[in-house]
Design a protein that fits this description.
The complex is a heterodimer.
Chain A: E1 3-8, E2 11-12, E3 18-25, E4 32-39, E5 46-52, E6 57-59, E7 67-72, E8 77-82, E9 91-99, E10 115-119
Parallel strand pairs in A: 2-10
Antiparallel strand pairs in A: 1-3, 3-8, 4-5, 4-9, 5-6, 7-8, 9-10
Chain B: E1 4-7, E2 10-13, E3 19-25, E4 33-38, E5 45-49, E6 53-54, E7 62-67, E8 70-75, E9 84-90, E10 102-106
Parallel strand pairs in B: 2-10
Antiparallel strand pairs in B: 1-3, 3-8, 4-5, 4-9, 5-6, 7-8, 9-10
Classes of the chains: A mainly beta, B mainly beta.
Chain lengths: 121, 107
């Protein structure tokens, strides 16, 4: 069974760069599209970006100018960077996978455990 | 972007009640809706994908239906472990968007 574990810095100052990584174990890394999400405290979920094992990417236009998603297939990992963070970027960040099927539609499972990132001076 | 709305925003139920949550998309998305359950401090858990397919390991009291712009999630008989927040999500096209959530709590 595929499992996802995520890690990264949880406290940042305004203007710094957020950096998070997800590691995948227990199954096929290349059989998935991998995504990042965030959820501000008490609010809903926002999809940030996705990447395939070969490096094909899609970004949410609302964040695209500040976000980079990357993949390291040799280590079954993928990462997120968000530049120039502000208090509005404070959220729990999740990574998750979509198993690639014949359907073009996307659903997400499994999920990482989540990382609370707080931006404060 | 495709906007997703949910109703109600919250509801109170007793164990054994039948609960139905509605999700609407701002444009037709065929059957590209998924449903998640989220408990406080936990990651979302996939319940239903492609509108009506039950994710492996999810109890059969959960079911989904709908197509186009109107979708529903039904819990046939609510159990104590079902008190949580439920989100719909469209997987039709990026950016993949979520509904604002429906909180189901104990009456």
């Amino acid at each position: 069974q595929v499992q996802v574990e995520q890690w990264g810095a949880g406290l940042l100052k305004p203007s710094e760069t957020l950096s998070l990584t997800c590691g995948v174990s227990g199954g096929s890394f290349s059989g998935y599209f991998w995504s990042w999400f965030r959820q501000p405290p008490g609010k809903g979920l926002e999809w940030i970006a996705e990447i395939s094992h070969s490096g094909t990417t899609n970004y949410n236009p609302s964040l695209k100018s500040r976000v980079t998603i990357s993949v390291d297939t040799s280590r079954s990992r993928f990462s997120l960077k968000v530049t120039s963070v502000t208090a509005a970027d404070t959220a729990v960040y999740y990574c998750a996978g979509h198993w690639i099927t014949d359907s073009p539609s996307r659903w997400f499972d499994p999920w990482g455990q989540g990382t609370l990132v707080t931006v404060s001076s | 972007d495709i906007q997703m709305t949910q109703s109600p925003s919250s509801l109170s139920a007793s164990v054994g009640d039948r609960v139905t949550i509605t999700c609407r998309a701002s444009q037709s998305i065929t059957n590209s809706v998924n449903w998640y359950q989220q408990k406080p401090g936990k990651a979302p858990k996939l319940l239903i994908y492609a509108a009506s397919s039950l994710q492996s390991g999810v109890p059969s009291r959960f079911s989904g239906s709908g197509s186009g712009t109107h979708f529903t999630l039904t819990i046939s008989a609510v159990q104590p472990e079902d008190f949580a927040t439920y989100f719909c999500q469209q997987g039709n096209s990026p950016p993949f968007t979520f509904g604002p959530g429906t909180k189901v709590d104990m009456k």
